[in-house]
Amino acid sequence: xxxxxxxxxxxxxETVETFLRFYIKKFWAQYESLIHIETxxxxxxxxxxxSPKIYHLxxxxxxxxxxxxxxxxxxxxxxxxxxxxxxx
Length: 88
What we know:
By secondary structure, the protein is α/β, with parallel strands linked by helices. It contains three helices and four strands.
């Protein structure tokens, strides 16, 4: 499984990546070697590497909604990172 995390806010991106890696290690340890996570700090970087059918899950920061139109037509699940109220 290939997962992309795209967010221009470094703290949020790294927090999501850390949580996801911990979750996989704790609950899906037997599949850990089959899960590949890539991080992108901008939509442009992600779109340079994006190809249909590569990513099974794309996690987007709140400012990345514009690229949903582009990737939404492909068979990938998309999640959005919502900021916490105290980080605004």
